Amino acid sequence: MKNTESKYIYYAWIILGIAFLSRIFYASTFPLIPDETNYWQWSRYLDFGYYDQSPMIGWAIRFFTSFLDHTELAVRLPSICSTFITGIYIILLCRRYLSDKTAFHCMIAVNAILIFNAGAILATADALQALGWTGATYHLLKAYDEDKLSEWMYGGFWFGFGMLSKYSACLIGVFALLYGLSSAEKRIRLKSFKPYLGAIFGIIIFSPVILWNIKYDWASARHVLYLGGGDTKGFLHIKYLIEYIGSQAGVISPVIFFFIIAAWLKSIKESSWTLNYLFYTSASMIIFFALLSIHSRMFANWPSPGYIAGVILTCHYFAENREKIFKIEKRYIWYFGLILSFIPTILLLIQLNKRILPLPASTDRISREVSGWKEAGREAKKFMDSMPDKTNTFYFGLKYQTASELAFYTPGKPYTVCINKWSRPNVYDFWFKDKDLLKKDGIGLLISKNKLNNLKQVFESVGDVKTIKVYREGLFIREIYIVKCFGFKGGLRWKPKDNSDIRYLGP
User: Fold this and answer.
1) Is the pLDDT higher at 500 or at 502?
2) Phi and psi of 395, rounded to 5°?
3) Is residue 105 very low, low, confident or very high in pLDDT (cuts 50, 70, 90)?
C-alpha cells in the first residue's frame, strides 16, 4: 500500500511541528478553566488514584510545574506534549502500513477537528488517554504483524499508560483482542504467551489505581459506574442515543462524521487485515458508547480516542478519492468537510483568548469559564489579610471548580477547601475532614448569591461580602462573591438523599 511520494512525509512532519509550537505559544495567553485548575490541584496532592478518574494528569502536571513553576503553560504541557507524540505515532503507522499521503492528510485532519484540538491544549486527561490509545494501537498492530515479544510489551506499556490516564482506555485491549479472535489470518498470534504477557504488563502498570480503589472502598469505580448509568432509572432512553449521535457529529463535524462512518463500512469489506484491525480499534469504541447511551447520557468526549484510527481510515480512503457523488469528486467533499471543521476549531481557540463570538453571557460558556478568577483571587487575598487570625483561616469554594480556581489565582497559591455539602462527592473529600477545620474561619468564593444562606448551616456567622462584577471586553458575564465566614461547625462532605446512591461511602 505504500507509495514513494516522500515529500508528503516531510509535509506531515512540518504540520505536526508547527501545531506543537503554536500550542506552546498559545497556552500562556488565556486563564485556566475550572477543570484545569482542578487537575492542577491533583498535582499538589500526589496519590495513586483520585475520585474522578485515573491519576496520570495530576502526575504529569506535577512533573512540568516542578521545573516550570505553577503557570498556565506548565499545567497545559502534558496535553500539548501528549498530542505531539500521538501525532508521531499516527505518522509512523500511516507510513509503515498505508502511505505518506495518508500521513500528510491525517495531520491536516487531526489539526482541523474540534475535539482533538480542545484536548490538545487544555489540561485534561483526554490527550494523555489518546496517546496511550494510539501508542497501543500502533504497537499491537506491529505485534500482530511481526509477533515480536518487544512489540507486545510496548503495546502493554501503552495499554497501562492509557488506563493510568483514563479508565476507558482499557477498551483498546478489549478491541485489539476481539480483532485477533475474529481474524482467521491473525488468530494464531493469540495462541502464544506473548500477547498475554503484554496485557499482564499493562495491568501491573495500572495496579496502583486498583490498590487505591481497594483502600477507598472502590470510590472511583463507584463514580465511573454512576456516570455510566449505574443509578439511572429505567433501561431504554432513546433520547440519550439521539443526543449522543448529535454530539458526535458536532464535535467531529457532520461531513467528517459521515466520511468516518463510510470508511468503517468500507474497511469491513476489505481483505486487508490492517484495515480490519483499524476498524476494530476505532468503530468499536464509538459503538460501545452508543450502546451505553441507550441507558444513560454520555459525554461527547468519552469515545474520542476511537476517532484516531477512524480518521486514518478516512484519509486513506477519501483524501485522494476521485470517485464522484452527485458529480462531485469525493476528495472535494472531504476538503469541504475539513474547512467546516476548521471554522469552529479556530473560533474556539480565538474565543478562549479574545471574545469574538457575539454570544449573550448566558450561552457564552467560554467567557464564563475564563473570566473573573484573577480578580476574585486578588480580592480573596485582601479579605484574608484583614482577618483577625490568618493562621486559623482557610480559603474555600462550594464546588471543586471554584475552590481550584481560587487556589490557582489567589496570590501565594494557597491550599483551598471545597464545602460540597450541597453538590456531589469530589476529590476534596479525600484531602480535608471536618475535624481539620472545626472552629476555624473561612474566606469563600461563590458564584451564586443564593448560596450565602447555605453558609449559615456550616459556619456560626457570615460576615462581609464583596461583590465582583465580571466583564469580558465590555460584556457583563456574572457576579462573583467573596465572603468572610466565622467559626466552622462542620459539614464538608456531600450527603445523599438516601443511602442507596452508588456513590455513597458511608457516614
Assistant:
1) 502
2) -90, 145
3) very high
Largest Cα separation within the chain, whole Å, is: 78
Asked if 129 and 54 touch (Cβ cutoff 8 Å), the reply is no
Closest CA to 111 of 28, 21, 33: 21
Nearby residues of 327 by Cβ (< 8 Å), 6 or more positions away: none
Q: Which residue has the cell 448529535?
A: 246
Whether pTM > 0.90 for this model: the answer is yes
Residues 6+ apart with CB under 8 A from 390: 384
Helix (H, G, I), strand (E, B) or coil at 445: strand
Alpha helices of 191-253 — where are they, by DSSP H?
A: 194-215, 219-225, 238-252
Per-residue pLDDT averaged across 70-74, rounded? Answer: 97
pLDDT one-digit tens code per residue, 132-157: 999 999 999 999 999 999 999 999 99
Whole-angstrom CA distances from 303 to 6, 58, 105, 130, 325 are 33, 21, 22, 10, 29
User: How long is the chain?
Assistant: 507
Q: How far apart are CA 360 and CA 381, in angstroms?
A: 31
Tell me the CA end-to-end span of the chain in Å, nearest whole number: 62
Q: What is the DSSP string of 465-481?
A: EEEEEEEETTEEEEEEE
Asked if 470 and 429 count as a contact pair (C-beta separation under 8 A), the reply is no
> 136 and 93 in contact (C-beta within 8 Å)?
no
Contact residues for 279 (Cβ-Cβ < 8 A; gap 6+): 264, 267, 268, 309, 313
Q: State how far the Cα of 8 lies from the Cα of 366, in Å rounded to an integer.
A: 36
Q: How far apart are CA 33 and CA 275, in angstroms?
A: 39
Distances (CA, A) of 445 to 56, 379, 384, 395, 421: 28, 10, 12, 8, 15
Check: CB of residue 128 under 8 Å from CB of residue 64.
no
159 and 136 Cβ atoms separated by less than 8 Å: yes
Instruction: Please name the amino acid found at residue 181.
Output: L
Quick one: CA dihedral 440, 388, 463, 32, positive or negative? negative
List the Cα angle 216/161/98 in 5-degree steps. 150
CA geometry: angle 251, 346, 253, nearest 5 deg = 25
Q: How many CA atoms lie within 13 A of 95 on its CB side?
A: 17
In the structure grid, which three cell numbers stand for residue 506, read together?
458511608
Tell me how many helices (H) and strands (E) the chain has.
Answer: 22, 7
Q: How far apart are CA 105 and CA 223, in angstroms?
A: 39
Q: To which residue does cell 469491513 refer?
A: 268
